[in-house]
Amino acid sequence: MPRFLVTYHGGGMPESEEGRQQAMAAFGAWVGATGKALVDPGAPLGPSRTVSAGSVTDGRASEPFNGYSILEAADLDAAVDLVRSHPYVERGGSLQISEAVTP
């Protein structure tokens, strides 16, 4: 079955402890609803460096993302359906779903 990389853009975590707990509970509910299709729930991302053409710079590439998840689904449309109810979108973020191409 095809795998899909879901990258998290914009959005972010609430600043208050109560808000963070609510966000994590909502993510946990999404994880539960997604079931076995969620191969790896992923993680938020911290500091990074970008390697390109022999140079290394601090910071993210021109299209940064804040976290990731990995799904298995029949096709791209099915993967999109799995993330439509993702709580990250409700917090103002967006999700990009990309199929992992295997030889």
Key traits:
6 strands; 103 residues; four-stranded antiparallel sheet; two-stranded antiparallel ribbon; 3 helices; alpha+beta
How would you concisely characterize the structure shown here?
The chain has 103 residues and is α+β, with helices and mostly antiparallel strands.
Kindly describe this structure.
The chain is built from three helices and six strands. The chain is an alpha+beta fold and 103 residues long. Strands 2-5-1-6 form a four-stranded antiparallel beta sheet. It is flat and about 45 Å long. The model has no long low-confidence stretch (mean pLDDT 88).
- Secondary-structure arrangement, i.e. CATH architecture: 2-Layer Sandwich
Number of helices: 3
Percent range of helical residues: 25-40%
Shape: flat
Structural class comes to alpha+beta
Instruction: Tell me the strand order in the biggest sheet.
Output: 2-5-1-6
For this structure, what is the CATH class? Alpha Beta
CATH-level-4 superfamily name: Dimeric alpha+beta barrel
| Strand residue percentage | 25-35%
> Separation of termini?
13 Å
Question: What kind of assembly state do the chains in view correspond to?
Answer: single chain
Radius of gyration: 15 Å
The residue ranges in which pLDDT falls below 50 over 5 or more consecutive positions are none
| Domain tally | 1
From N to C, what is the helix and strand string? EHEEEEHHE
CATH topology: Alpha-Beta Plaits
Main sheet, how many strands, which sense, barrel? 4 strands, antiparallel
> What value does the average pLDDT take?
88
Query: In total, how many beta strands?
Result: 6
